[in-house]
Structure formats: structure tokens, C-alpha cells
Design a protein that fits this description.
single chain; 313 residues; mainly beta; Pectate Lyase C-like; ten-stranded parallel beta sheet; globular
């Protein structure tokens, strides 16, 4: 007999031969106004992982360590991103598909990819690593409602040609993303802040980007450290024509062919504000320069080299 509120995780075959975890929540009686919502973590046998804790009303507020660990003018690094020190992680093995609304995953070492197919999901204080195409996927075609919130976590593609986080309805805060060809691949309704993307995978003839934008609108990339490195394509690359309502601000960027590719053709309300470009990989910031086409966007101001000298298009 399952206790009320218990989340069951069912391993299924995802078609590619890899196990996939499906969360199934049995009906629970409505709580009284004064009672707390039940939550439980299933105790999984060694062959029945991954596991996750779930709550019907997750808190989307800040966790114990806020982004004040790296306030401006400091930019994020390993000291203020990823899993906070002292958090003990429990291992969950295998790919995970989250289909239960308002699931909370906290304190997990997930050795597999995660696909979100339900609203209100929160992932915090966890490490997620896999070698498939996308480590954490939130697609606008998979669900509607409140998007994924992922914070204070480490994302790794294990040094392969994958993408860390993609692509819509995501708030990403204080992440440490590494070992991926693309840190983020963004479409619409996304905020990436206080995050550190570094050590991209540059093999296999790909085009590594710390942040790539596929198009769409409602994207904010603010106060991050984005390193494309030597052999990378960009710290940030935007779609040439399909961008609207995009803000790129207060980031520290370096490396790539050009460090920042702004939309070169038709886009609307794209703002590039108060970013800094470092010469740590190339004397020009990127191999060919710090940015390209940024004089064509709606608002460009306050952008500088790491020395404080103004950037000009």
C-alpha cells in the first residue's frame, strides 16, 4: 500500500534502449486548510533509480545561498555557482522524464538526462550529467503553464557534443555548466542569470557556444560568465533574423570566433547593455573580434573591454 502523496518512479524503455524514469503520482485526498501538503521520497532499490522528492506546492523563492555571493562587479565563477558546499547528493542512475506537475528535485546526483514534461518543476542543489544530446530539456511543445526553475546546480555533458540546457520556459540561476558543446540552446521565455559556462567541448567539427539563441522572444541573459575558449564559436550567438524582446546585460564574455554575435538582419527590441569582454583567450576577445553586427540592434550601451575601455562596433 502506498502512502498518500508518494511518487512512484517507473523505468520504461525510451526506444533507444536507455531506461527512462516516469513519475506517477496516485490520487491524494485534498488537505485541510491548516494541514501541510504531503511530500515523500520513494525508497528505491538499487535497480529502481532514479528517485526524486515531490511537493504539490514547491517554493520558487531563493535557497540558502543567494546570488549575492558574486555581486557586481564580480562575475560568477565556481565559488558561487553549482551545488553549494556541504550538500550531500544521493545518486540516481538513468534518464528521467518528469510528468508530475510541481515535482521538486533536490540534492540529487542524476547520472542521466532529464526531460521536463510537466509545469512547475523545480530542480535545485543537484548535479546532472549525461552524454546524450541534451542534459536538461524543457520544450514548449511538451507542456504548458509554469516553466522549469533550475538553480544552484551543476550541469555536465561529460566532455561530449551535447547541450546543457534547452530550450523554453526556463529560469536558470547559479548554474555551473561545463563539458558541453553548447551550454544553453534557447528559444523563448528564458532567463539565464548568475551562471558560469566554461570548458566547452570543441572536438568533432562542431560550433561550440556558451549560449546560443534559436530565435523566439522573451530571453534575458544577465550577469553570467560565458567562456567560449579557444576553438569555440561564441560566448553568445543569436539567430540572425528572428529575435525579439531580448536583453543581454552585465555578462563577462571571452573567446570564440566572435565573442558575441548580434542579430544581423531583422529583429526587434534587442538590448546589449553593460557587458564586458575579456582578452584571456585572444587579443581581440574572440579570434576575429569582440562582437559583430551589434550596431544594428535596438540599444547598445555601456559595453567595455575588461580594462574598462569602451567597445565600439
Amino acid at each position: 500500500m502506498l502512502a498518500s502523496g508518494t511518487v512512484v518512479i517507473v523505468l520504461t524503455n525510451g526506444g533507444s534502449g536507455a531506461p527512462r524514469a516516469t513519475m506517477v503520482e496516485p490520487p491524494v485526498p485534498a488537505p485541510s486548510p491548516t494541514s501541510a501538503q504531503p511530500s515523500a521520497s520513494p525508497s528505491a532499490s538499487p535497480s529502481a533509480s532514479p528517485s526524486a522528492s515531490a511537493s504539490k506546492k514547491p517554493s520558487n523563492g531563493p535557497v540558502a545561498r543567494s546570488n549575492l555571493a558574486c555581486p557586481l562587479p564580480k562575475h560568477p565563477d565556481a565559488s558561487c555557482t553549482g551545488v553549494p558546499a556541504g550538500v550531500a547528493l544521493s545518486v540516481s542512475s538513468g534518464n528521467m522524464t518528469i510528468r508530475t506537475p510541481n515535482t521538486v528535485i533536490d540534492g540529487k546526483d542524476i547520472r542521466g538526462c532529464v526531460r521536463v514534461q510537466a509545469p512547475g518543476v523545480v530542480i535545485r542543489r543537484s548535479k546532472i550529467s549525461c552524454t546524450d544530446f541534451i542534459v536538461v530539456a524543457s520544450f514548449r511543445t511538451d507542456y504548458s503553464g509554469t516553466g522549469l526553475r533550475i538553480e544552484d546546480s551543476e550541469i555536465s555533458c561529460n566532455g561530449g557534443p551535447g547541450t546543457g540546457v534547452s530550450d523554453s520556459n526556463v529560469i536558470a540561476l547559479r548554474l555551473n555548466v561545463h563539458g558541453c558543446e553548447n551550454g544553453f540552446s534557447l528559444d523563448s521565455s528564458v532567463q539565464v542569470s548568475d551562471t558560469y559556462v566554461h570548458d566547452l567541448y570543441t572536438g568533432g567539427g562542431g560550433h561550440p557556444d556558451a549560449v546560443e539563441m534559436e530565435g523566439g522572444s522573451g530571453i534575458t541573459v544577465s550577469h553570467n560568465t560565458l567562456y567560449a575558449g579557444v576553438g569555440g564559436n561564441s560566448a553568445i550567438i543569436t539567430d540572425p533574423t528572428k529575435m525579439s524582446n531580448v536583453t543581454i546585460s552585465d555578462n563577462l564574455m571571452a573567446g570564440g570566433a566572435y565573442t558575441l554575435y548580434c542579430p544581423r538582419d531583422s529583429s526587434s527590441n534587442v538590448r546589449v547593455l553593460n557587458n564586458r569582454v575579456s582578452r584571456m583567450f585572444y587579443p581581440k576577445g574572440g579570434e576575429y573580434g569582440p562582437w559583430t553586427d551589434c550596431g544594428k540592434v535596438a540599444q547598445v550601451s555601456g559595453n567595455t573591454w575588461d580594462t574598462g575601455q569602451a567597445l565600439t562596433d
